[in-house]
Amino acid sequence: MSTALRSSSTRWWALAILALTELVVVLDTTIVTIALPQAQLEIGLSDVQRQWIVTAYALAFGALLLLGGRIADYWGRKRTFMVGMIGFGIASAWGGLAQSGLELIIARGIQGAFAAMLAPAALAMVTVTFAHGKERNIAFAIFGTVAGSGAAVGLVLGGVLTEFASWRWCLLVNVFFVIAGLIGGALLLKESKADGRNRYDVWGAITVTLGLGALVYGFTLAEHGWDSIDTIGFLALGAGLLALFILIESRITQPLLPLRVIVNSVRGGAFLIQAVVGAIMIGSILYLTFYFQIVLGMSPLISGLANVAMTATILLSSPFATKALNRFGPRPLMILGPLFCAAGLFSFMGITPDGNYFTQVLPGLILLGIGFAQLFVPLQNLALIGVDPEDAGVASGTINSTFHIGGSIGLAVFTALYAGTVTSALDDGADQHTAFTDGYISAFIASGIAMILASVIAFFLIRGKKDDLMPTWDEDDAAAYAH
To answer: I need a surface site. Which of 42, 55, 347, 460 has the fewest CB within 10 A?
Structure first.
């Protein structure tokens, strides 16, 4: 075999390792969702702790993603990838062996922190390995497809492992992926990093991480009352730290998040809508899983499969959404997509303690799938409209970061609404399953309202013609970004 052929083959094997990494990082957002009811019973999680098993991962991942990208660029992408893999594997093993809720929450937070190193390093190495041309487009299509399927894979795999082994294997299974990633990474990946004098935005990283943490914790405390001193205090602290973060970013030469990336109205609108999408996919859908298992009594496996109807609809609807995008541009999709999602979420108002999946849930999942397909197709491109090549990485990182941060905030808000509704229903004499169902409905109503707001945001902020969507980089731009 010639050297050129061997080199080409190695690049595609490297892509397989990088795509596998992205799959693991994404599926870990959802894989524990199916396992939470069993874990709650086994180690005695409170409802708030149960929420934080998901929130800790999503919040750490979202808050540290931009810093992870900077570390990969400055310290070395392969080195960051390997360290991230090791840390992710150790945290996964700790979480799988955890004996208390606090242990599990801390392990999930550490998982998210190392995932924030892994994800941008993997994406950057795809960019470096496939710098331009047709192979680059194929590589990104494969990488994006694997990443997009991660949530569905997580639901099904989580159901299988919880049903036939234990909820602990939803975390321990990552160790096998990590071993494969470390071996493949050592053999196939090449080191690369940014040139020039690079400085870390340490204060920016500290203020945004603490600010988001305080904000999410404040929303979590709202379970005990929106007017309590603790709730107001932490929400105010979070807002103040985020304001300080923006001030810092406006005054330093190498900011973690260049403000020029987010002040553009189209990109800013895309980031806001992505945050709402994250709130629904991470926050609201969690309560549908609880409804399946706790109220309807579905097994973990059947519960995971029941959720896949939405993902299947997304995959089936995406080609039609792509055709509509090419014909009409992004604005109609971004306005109508959230309205389809809102219709699906409002349809869940009809669920009952003795409900029927096919009449009360499946139609809403199909509507959600149609709506999400219309959003997913243009969102990544909208985040890159008008972005200079040197800002492409941070813009892409921001769209991913807003998804997880939105999920963290959404889950905290929905949990507060759920808890308040359940307490009120129990005080009024409702049985436990009826009270739980009322709580889930309150989360779905709030989610539907959030999606309507996303449609309003799209109406006022999303512009752009279909010809504007694909950034036109030449080979020199690609080479400059790849260094």
So the answer is: 460
